[in-house]
Specification:
Elements lengths: L1 E3 L2 H13 L4 E6 L5 H13 L2 E6 L19 H10 L4 E3 L3 H4 L18 H4 L3 H16 L3 E5 L3 H13 L5 E5 L19 H6 L2 H14 L5 H12 L6 E8 L14 E9 L2 E9 L2
Parallel strand pairs: 1-4, 2-3, 2-5, 3-4, 5-6
Antiparallel strand pairs: 7-8, 8-9
Helix pairs in contact: 6-7, 9-10
Amino acid sequence: MLICKTPAEMHSACKNLRNANKTLGLVPTMGALHDGHLSLIAAARAECDVVVVSIFVNPTQFGPNEDYAAYPRTFAADCEKLESAGVHVVFAPLADEMVTPDTTTFVDTGELGSRLDGASRPIHFRGVATIVARLFNIVQPDRAYFGQKDAAQVAVLRRMVRDLNFPVQLTVCPIYREADGLAMSSRNRYLSPEERQRALILSKALAVAQSLAQQGESNAEALRSAILETFTTDPQLRLDYVAVVHPDTLLPLADTSHGALIAVAAWIGTTRLIDNLLLPA
């Protein structure tokens, strides 16, 4: 497994692979890898000749009072998992290799980037889109793999790929869950045992909405109200949002009969968690 530390080194390695007619699949991560990440890697391995994984805790997507400094960094353990998973190349640049002190060019994600997570994290999607755009330019992958758990991020990146004509196919893989339903996240390790149990309320609330939808309920406000009612059973929970939106525009829907994204975000203790559900048409 090749480990590249600079953009120039990574660009050269990927250029050589492309010249050898290899298809490249990119899995962007911030490290602290779990089985959800490994499911993206498995999807990439099934469809591409070479799998590239980036590990970069992106400072530009964290707000001033967020957990950039505390975000888990487990590079040695991550590399062991990646080698066992059959990854071919790891790109692990330092922060100042990707965001230099004199960087002035960023990707403006517009109104789309101000919805859902972007409403409470105003600079988040600008930072995400800028670094992903840089990764696309450095690696030039044929395919890039992202998880459905980050549904708003998926919508922002799909729009970026379309608007900037990146020649890359985005593949979105299903949410990978623990046996009890909790969506896998690197931030789950922040949770105490008691908070870990309380965190199950996110997936349980979505399950209530899914059950109602399967019974024929298509009124978005009725589904949203059912989720809010479930959340009242935990008075300590601090809610960020419950939204029923179009999965591409992230704009609110009144009716879900043509499909919808139901997304939730909440703080369990000091840890902000997200989860979502896609309703088919």
